[in-house]
Batch of 4 targets.
Target 1
Amino acid sequence: MHADISFLGLFLQASLLVKFVMLLLMAMSILSWAMIINRRKVLVSAQRASEAFEDKFWSGADLSRLYHESNARRDNLAGMEQVFYSGFKEFVRLQKQGRSQESLLEGTYRTMRVALSREVDRLETNLSMLATIGSISPYIGLFGTVWGIMNAFIALAEVKQATLSMVAPGIAEALIATALGLFAAIPAVIAYNRFGYQVERQENNLANFMDEFSAILNRQVAAGKP
């Protein structure tokens, strides 16, 4: 009677620990794909929103009007518009207090820096989990493989005449754990590197905008404009 060497057959024949390793790796793979899809949507949406606001900002629109438009939907702001809204709100507040030019601009810049950090934290959500899955999955799979091969050779030692057909299913089911580990790890690592690069680009864009916006406010203050 031949052993079932299909994936399901090998899974059912595996030891309890190897089954647990396989199920864990499949769960980690599903989790990583869910995070990949979610992060991609978030990053694409943030990039488009920032580009749309940047076009509006540099179109020559009045800053006060832009601020009131942003204030009307302040609970749904993100990216560059959130940095602008936070900075201009603090700028107006400090200006009403009669702060000096240096104190006014420093307080505004500090507030925008906080808004930028929060936006980066939002964009980086779950990226550490992707990195963790990408780094530990191969080792979990390797552990399952070592355990499975060890059991296969222990069972082999208990028979008088060993054949390849006797040891092959045990080794095959053990190697599946390594394959599942790589299946979970490779997409997670690729996505982590890709998303990390996209977050870094968006952070640089926000930092550049923050500097440019600060320069505009500085010119307005120097010119005595509200």
Target 2
Amino acid sequence: MIVIYGIKENLNPIKSALSDVIHGCMQSVLGLPEDKRAQRFIPLEVDDFYYPSGRSAAYTVIEINMMQGRTVATQKALIKALFQQIELHIGILPIDIEITIKEQPAHCWGFRGMTGDEARDLKYKVNV
């Protein structure tokens, strides 16, 4: 599950393209299949989104929630790919992007009526 926050006037026009870029990075770095896109966009009013000085109104926060198992190298590769591809395809500079990866053990995930540690039919690897 990925949650993306930004000022609505800036985020709404780029949602579709940003979704494609983020999912492309998830596919190329983590090996997620095409049909594993799980994203939520939270467009905010200007007065509801405080961000650090030195950032522009394009400031965007990306929170990536995933099951534990990816190596530090894989997580760093994902973050760097996101910075690079978002700047290249969307035009948001890395100074205006904040990325957080939040990992939880597989037993803390629930989907399709089971917990993540019970799932045996995932179409992707978690330990990469």
Target 3
Amino acid sequence: MKNVAITLILLMAGSIAYGQHTINISNTDSGKSGNADHTLTIGSDGIHITSYNKDEKRKKIELIFFMLDLGINNLQDKTNYNSPDAQAYLQVNQDQKNSNLFSLREGKSVNVNIYPVMLKFYALQTKNQKIIISSGFGIQSYDFRFNKPISYVNYTSPAVIMDTISFSKNKLGFYFLNIPLGVTFKTRLSEKLWGVYGFGITGGYRLSSWTKQISDERGKDKNHDSFNFQDFNACLTGEIGLDKHFRLYASYQLTNLYKNALDQHPFAIGIRFGGV
């Protein structure tokens, strides 16, 4: 075990300096009916464990570690601001009860998705086309930076108010435990270049929601609360790019961010690092 550990460490160090290394692990137990090889690949794009079918000579299942989405997000607002629920939830002046109340500093409203482990299954493999089904788990986060000094409160009931001071930072944040299910297509464009495109859906459970405000009067103030937000969400996702070069992603939340009163749907676009 000690020698194996030393070998793995040396391979990881070498992969960073010189490229990619592969370890082949064969099923040599003649008493078992399994007929597969396994490959551990350590490279600059991460660690991959691949399962090969010896008969077909093609990989069927691959376990990949670490995929990161980094982008900006915004809100599609479908709220009927004349409804009794919206009127009661927004405790601001009547002329402020509209979508402009939630206008964002778009360049600083950030979406980050982290997937530590993804499992991908090759549904189709030909010389020029691959179809991959994938799933895993991860963390989906939203940060919404507001232009106006609104505050989410939860006294006798949740509400949004217009604060009496100005904030240098006024942010609403979320963490969701996220499970994706996607279909990815890879099409050969040239001998060494593959186009990548795909779509999927994610389901999430809200782990945390909070506000963070910074002002001269109050300093840094962070408040964790549900604030009338849904516990579960579902998103449509898509990606496009060139395999091992770059990928762009997009997502749109199908479910309402709120339980009631308001009707807002986050969407995001950005860059994907790694991928199936």
Target 4
Amino acid sequence: MPEDTAPPRPAAAQAPGRTRTWAPPSPLDVRRTLMPLRRGGGDPTFRITPDGTVWRASRTPAGPATLRLTGSPAAIEGTAWGPGAQWLLDGLPSLLGADDDPSAFVPRHRVVHAAHRRHPGLRLTRTGLVLESLIPSVLEQKVTTIEAYRAWRLLLLQHGEAAPGPRGAAAPPGMRVMPDPAGWARVPSWDWRGAGVDDKRASAVLRAVRLGGRLDSLADRPAEEASALLRSVPGIGPWTAAETLQRSHGAPDAVTVGDLHLPHHIGYALTGEPRSDDETMLRLLAPYAGQRHRAARLILLAAPGPPRRAPRMAPPRHR
């Protein structure tokens, strides 16, 4: 089956959309705030149309739903469809950073200060959906970004369901909602392999979905406590927990440790040295204790990474 062709599935039930308008209390960059939720340009759960409209499909505790964001930075209009529509609208302010407190951040380096001034509308999103952030983070373990994004896209096209949407409106085609825990458990071994997911990562996903709603209940726990509980699940380490909590909790201090590129990028931006390790990165970010993830995001936005020493590694071919 071609990679971009989804098997036919019944369309999601369609109903009139529900709408909510929210006025942010301070400058807000909607696209940059939500961009960490997009897993590549072909992510079936996330679209930005040419007119700037943001679309996002989620599996909420109330069921699948699709959210459309329009309007201006001063008044953002969210319209949602599907059984989980009201759940998404209730969480709209948190999704757009209302729970985030950027005033607690004090830049300590020139490059960070410049980025902080240049991006006043950056907020840390909080989805309240742990499993939704955890599964793609597991898929990103120990592989290239291209491989991980491909796996997420293929698995959703094959096993997700059509995203709810408006009747007769221009919803982006091909949007999907990720499977529920039972749906993930039914993914056959050959589809994991066909998506390039090895047994170790597939097993970690299956262990996580067996916990199901118990993992999503971690959204109500403090980030440090939720991190410890996540890391108690075999196959979920500090890297995966941090990547999850950055999105589910909007955790400002959830710095990603164990990443292949991040220490080099931060080290190069702050010292000019092209090669760094986790220990060096944590030392450089120590002045931002409590806000290390925000500092890292600003550095990634403002400063180029170190020059590459070799061509980008091509992802392996899977049969």
